[in-house]
Predict the structure.
Amino acid sequence: MKTVLITGCSSGFGLDTARLFLDRGWKVIATMRSPRIDLLPVSDKLVVLPLDVTSDESVRNAVEAAGPIDVLVNNAGIGWLNALEGTPIDVARSLFETNTLGTMRMISAVLPQFRGRKAGLVINVTSSVTMKPLPLLSAYTASKAAVNAFTDSLALELAPFGISIRIVLPGAAPETSFGSTAFSRLEENGGFPAPYAEFAKGVIAAMRASGAPKTCSSDVAEAVWRAATDPSAPMRIPAGADAVALDR
Ligand SMILES: NC(=O)c1ccc[n+]([C@@H]2O[C@H](COP(=O)([O-])OP(=O)(O)OC[C@H]3O[C@@H](n4cnc5c(N)ncnc54)[C@H](OP(=O)(O)O)[C@@H]3O)[C@@H](O)[C@H]2O)c1
C-alpha cells in the first residue's frame, strides 16, 4: 500500500485530495494546523497529524511521526488580493513563508528518506495565476511562481536519486474557503488603498460576474492523483476547466 502525506487538509483541495486517495486504497497522512479527525471517513488507513508548514519544529515532528511516505503533496497555502501599495511587507513575507518557504521546508524534511530509498515523488500545488497574470495578485503570484521556478531546477538535482517532482496548477475555485480567508485578511490589513478602490471594485465585480468555467476541488484531487500515479504525466498539470484552457 502506498502512502501520501498531504499538507493543508482542513478544507478545500487538501481535504478532497485526502478523501480521494483514501477511497482509492492509499494510506493517507492528512496534516492540518489544528487536527480534526471528524473531517475524513474513519479508516485504519488514515493518520491525522498536526503540521504548520511555517515551523521547522512542526515540520520535523510531523515527518518523523508520519514514517515512510511515497508521495508528498504540498497543498497548504494562503491567498492575498490587493495592490502592491496595499500589501504590507509583513503580509508579503507571510505569503512567501507559507506558500514558498513552507513548500521548501517540507521537501527538505522528506528528502533524506526519499534519497535513502532512491524513490519518492513531490507534488507542489501552485496556481494558474502563474500562467496568466491577473491584477491585484502580484504578491500571491510571486509566491507561487517562485515555487514553479524552484521546482524546475530541483527536478534536475533530484533525478539522479530517483526522486520525481510535479506541479499541479489549479484555476480559480470559488467554492473553497480560500477567497473568503483572503478577504478577511484584506479587511484586517486596511482594505484597498483609496487610489485603487474603484479599480479593485471593477476587478472583483468582473471576477464575480464571469460565467467562465471554474475549478472544483475534485478537479485538483484528480490532477494530484494523476501526478501521483501516472509516471508519464507532464511536469506541469493544470487542474480545472479554466486552468486547462489557459494551458492550450
Ligand atoms: N481556491 C483557489 O481559487 C485556488 C486557486 C489556485 C491555487 N490555489 C492553491 O491551492 C491550495 C489549497 O487552496 P484551497 O482553495 O483548498 O484553500 P483553503 O480551503 O483555504 O485551504 C488551504 C489549506 O491550507 C492550510 N494552511 C494555511 N496555512 C498553513 C500553514 N502555515 N501550515 C499548514 N497548513 C496551512 C489551511 O489550514 P487552516 O485551516 O489551518 O488555515 C487549509 O487547510 C493553496 O496552496 C492555494 O494557494 C487555490
Notes: The chain has eight helices and seven strands.
